[in-house]
Specification:
Elements lengths: L5 H23 L2 E6 L4 E6 L4 E6 L9 H31 L12
Antiparallel strand pairs: 1-2, 2-3
Helix pairs in contact: 1-2
Length: 108
């Protein structure tokens, strides 16, 4: 492998690994708030894709139409998860220069 400086390559790999670790630490501090149904359902998801809070306006609860409430909850959670994924992908792209990849265990 002529022309490749292995020490420089190893140094770059170590720097990238450190930046990835820092990005994961930063992601642990991230929270994304989302809502559905005009704010009737609100959810907060953290950077580890865990639901931290869920608020349901009492007016959203109709025993005759539970499916609407279920749909609002799903929509709010999905929106928050997409927000976390977008933040993680932006951080990852900044580190890898757009080479792709994601955080281990993260669904993106």
């Amino acid at each position: 492998m002529a022309g490749i400086n292995m020490q420089q390559l190893m140094k770059q790999a170590q720097q990238m690994q450190q930046k990835l670790a820092e990005a994961q630490d930063n992601l642990e501090k991230v929270t994304v708030d989302a809502s559905a149904g005009g704010g009737m359902v609100k959810v907060t998801v953290d950077g580890q894709m865990q639901i931290k809070s869920l608020t349901i306006d009492p007016d959203a609860v109709d025993p005759e139409d539970v499916e609407v409430l279920e749909d609002m909850i799903i929509a709010a959670v999905n929106e928050a998860v997409r927000g976390v994924a977008e933040i993680a992908n932006k951080q990852m792209g900044a580190i890898t220069g757009g080479m792709g990849g994601g955080f281990p265990g993260m669904p993106f």
